[in-house]
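Appendix B. Extra example for self-study. Work through it before the problem class; the solution is given directly after the inputs so you can check yourself.
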Amino acid sequence: MPLDSNHLIGKEALLLLLHKEDQLPEKLRQLDWKYCKGKVGSMDGQKVVAAVETAAKNQGIIKSSLYRETHALYHAILEAMSGVTRGNNQIGTLLRTVGLQFAIVRGNPYKDKEEGEWIAVALYGTIGAPVKGLEHEAIGLGINHI
Amino acid sequence: MPLDSNHLIGKEALLLLLHKEDQLPEKLRQLDWKYCKGKVGSMDGQKVVAAVETAAKNQGIIKSSLYRETHALYHAILEAMSGVTRGNNQIGTLLRTVGLQFAIVRGNPYKDKEEGEWIAVALYGTIGAPVKGLEHEAIGLGINHI
Amino acid sequence: MPLDSNHLIGKEALLLLLHKEDQLPEKLRQLDWKYCKGKVGSMDGQKVVAAVETAAKNQGIIKSSLYRETHALYHAILEAMSGVTRGNNQIGTLLRTVGLQFAIVRGNPYKDKEEGEWIAVALYGTIGAPVKGLEHEAIGLGINHI
Amino acid sequence: MPLDSNHLIGKEALLLLLHKEDQLPEKLRQLDWKYCKGKVGSMDGQKVVAAVETAAKNQGIIKSSLYRETHALYHAILEAMSGVTRGNNQIGTLLRTVGLQFAIVRGNPYKDKEEGEWIAVALYGTIGAPVKGLEHEAIGLGINHI
Amino acid sequence: MPLDSNHLIGKEALLLLLHKEDQLPEKLRQLDWKYCKGKVGSMDGQKVVAAVETAAKNQGIIKSSLYRETHALYHAILEAMSGVTRGNNQIGTLLRTVGLQFAIVRGNPYKDKEEGEWIAVALYGTIGAPVKGLEHEAIGLGINHI
Amino acid sequence: MPLDSNHLIGKEALLLLLHKEDQLPEKLRQLDWKYCKGKVGSMDGQKVVAAVETAAKNQGIIKSSLYRETHALYHAILEAMSGVTRGNNQIGTLLRTVGLQFAIVRGNPYKDKEEGEWIAVALYGTIGAPVKGLEHEAIGLGINHI
Ligand SMILES: [Mg+2]
Ligand SMILES: [Mg+2]
Ligand SMILES: [Mg+2]
Ligand SMILES: [Mg+2]
Ligand SMILES: [Mg+2]
Ligand SMILES: [Mg+2]
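Solution. Structure tokens for the complete assembly:
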């Protein structure tokens, strides 16, 4: 039942995010997993959620016709946002803005194939005042069964 | 005043954490920054805080004689923990345990040298039931001026 | 001082909410308690609060001329909302919407009459993406002395 | 894709909890769903989690050999606890205790059979000072895809 | 219905706390309000709650035989603690300790006498690492109708 | 390393806030510390943050050209707001409004001069329904190294 240390879905999502765009993490190349990347900048939390959901649906990471897949993704996004906001999931209401890249990976990270598919949402970028430069980095990762 | 995209302190801390132990992120090799890595596994939040603080003091990342440095580190640790716990900073009280690696980096990530030193605490590992394998990955990053 | 197991104010509010509109919970019929029901759907937390407050005032559950009654009701509403939102009291800012029924009950649920009046606010309905069907149920209950 | 208003999994769990033990909600009798009830009283959040998890495994509601099922249940339990604690999931650390009944229901509440199985955890009881009678009612409901 | 600016219950509690022990805020001397002061130092949130509750009962600020008074006080204490802990009400579990003075005031701060009695709990002191000097100040205030 | 009990930065900020405008706390007169006062009333959290930041920059409490100073101030403001809102930093989204005075103090509160400068943000005023009089007092204090 343990995680397969060669197929860590969170790590793959994070490396996909942190590496240059043309550098695909080695593992992701070898696995038959679905993934995509995107960007979103906003003071509005719902735009961050929407950007990740739209990418996941448009890139075929999740089936938009199934609520259970949207539900799995949604909770993974909220968990990732809570890392970026360090707990409260508030952005503009606290006079801050985010400039984020996101990566979404869907695959089976456990050795036991019965554990099925999981989804990871990683967010990385900056958070700070709505003034260029008044910001520092932030990260978040949400993982859910799907 | 912007972040220097070649000296991203959070990214360096995250890559230090996600790479194999003998692979040092390129940038960290070139910069005259302080950093260290460590591990902690616990159901007890205060042990996670203590492990990171002890490493930072023992490895000379912060001066233990100055409260302002301990204060900067402490808030960075709490912010990182809120990513790992996805908001509530509770571990054992919710019947879960963490197995984490941590990286601490201290340096000057802004182009303007007057922005001075900052500290990044990154946590990466697993969180889940206190049973081997019943766990998934988690990440957290806290950044503070020091 | 214990709760009277025949006069559980929270349970009455919940059953009033969960039963069909023409089915009044047995206990509520017998007690000389004040109660009302209503509906609200919104992505906006303040509209949920306003809908419950307005109903409570219009139906004579609380005296609108007394702040202490509004205060008691307000905290009961927030506690109920935290059940529905599972902790953060955020709705639209996280790209979700609620479709809720609410019940408000005011009465004396303790055996000792000196414990006086209490108010219960129960919310039940759905929460999810702002798309019909992409939602699941949620509940919340707030109880306060009044 | 909408919820089937005759198969509301959350409502069934709540009615199972609020009704007398020998009264089974009508719908649950007709459906081929799995469910169980139990009790737990504690000042210790992890005991509440453990009691629900143990019941779910022992009564065959979830397969203990699959982490994805434990994961689905765990998050449903935490969501239910956040209703009971009204947000912070802390019990004894804030000098309060809970006396709860719980119901767990597993079934397919959506009209579209492809939406598959979902799990609902409902908690109902009292929360208050660790002194008999110094307490009021609380409820919580967590729902997850499984 | 407005607050009487000469009878601000929160301000009185805060000044009672911030002034030297032999200096009683002017207003409190003139009003027929109940109040007391005390101290508590702990890494354990429940000890803070208990210290304030015990003082309030022993000094006759609240009637211990009425749960509604304990309930009013309890929520005021939690609100004050959330100021001290800046949101999460966790102390030792995050490896920090508090050294607090507290003041409790009970009176009628509104011009309209029908608004009745309210209770204020103020906490002031230090929070920090469990090492002398590694700490800074913190404050909290909770106000409730009683 | 301990706090100098004659130079308590938080207490000075609180007394500056709680006293009449023409009464300057004794200590502040003697110390060579920077401080200012201001007012803000809003249902919008970002306006509270902005009002305090603008005052701090305009009154020369912090250097607006340095992000590290804005960062120190920002976290102090959020900590103070969490006292006022008792944890969630939400105002208008929960149908409430604040009428606050704020004080900002910058100085060196520790005996050891190497501890350098710290900043305190104190907020005091009322929080309640957006109707005159339906409100009670609230306080918050955030302290950070700068
Ligand atoms: Mg999880
Ligand atoms: Mg920051
Ligand atoms: Mg209560
Ligand atoms: Mg959900
Ligand atoms: Mg209040
Ligand atoms: Mg601090």
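Self-check: The longest helix of chain A spans residues 67-84. If your reasoning did not lead you there, revisit section 3.
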